[in-house]
């Protein structure tokens, strides 16, 4: 078993580009830029930006749904069905309120934790049994902010937080080839101890 589809979650449009909720897009953009020939292009049948590439000799799809976060499952489900990609071959990269900026965690399955993008993907795939790469953005309460969560995720991180989020994305990018190869224990250990 290996990863065949990496999905970055976010919201389309320039007004959302630099917001915390787009951390998944940020990682997939960086990954696409690092892989030869991986150019994200609009694919209307999946309502997404996507690229077909390879990593470590394995075919790999990159996907950024353009449906807005709450409807991400439409793109993910359609592409997974079309290319016969099993849920356990899907890695969804998303912002995570329960992790501080600068941290990233890899896990398989589990609840959506209130993340509407994950809820919709779970519904579209018919299972929670897919991989998640959680990019910490912090929580307004733990960052001593009075902002409601919905407002917090749709705003830019402060400069110090952005630097930490960028660091966690760099750490996460280093384990992507290991996950694509299917060595999840090693990928998890390297990411969680980095």
From TrEMBL:
SUPFAM superfamilies linked to this entry: Peptidyl-tRNA hydrolase-like (SSF53178)
Subcellular location: Cytoplasm
Main subcellular localisation: cytoplasm
The entry's keywords: Cytoplasm, Hydrolase, RNA-binding, tRNA-binding
Subunit note: Monomer.
One cellular component term from this protein's GO annotations in UniProt: cytoplasm
Active site positions, chain numbering: 21
PANTHER family reported for this sequence: PEPTIDYL-TRNA HYDROLASE
GO biological process: protein quality control for misfolded or incompletely synthesized proteins; rescue of stalled ribosome
Catalytic activity from the UniProt record: an N-acyl-L-alpha-aminoacyl-tRNA + H2O = an N-acyl-L-amino acid + a tRNA + H(+)
Role description: Hydrolyzes ribosome-free peptidyl-tRNAs (with 1 or more amino acids incorporated), which drop off the ribosome during protein synthesis, or as a result of ribosome stalling. Catalyzes the release of premature peptidyl moieties from peptidyl-tRNA molecules trapped in stalled 50S ribosomal subunits, and thus maintains levels of free tRNAs and 50S ribosomes.
Residue sites binding tRNA per the record: 16, 68, 70, 116
Protein name: Peptidyl-tRNA hydrolase
Organism lineage string: Bacteria, Pseudomonadati, Pseudomonadota, Betaproteobacteria, Burkholderiales
Highest taxon in the source lineage: Bacteria
Site (Discriminates between blocked and unblocked aminoacyl-tRNA): 11
EC number: 3.1.1.29
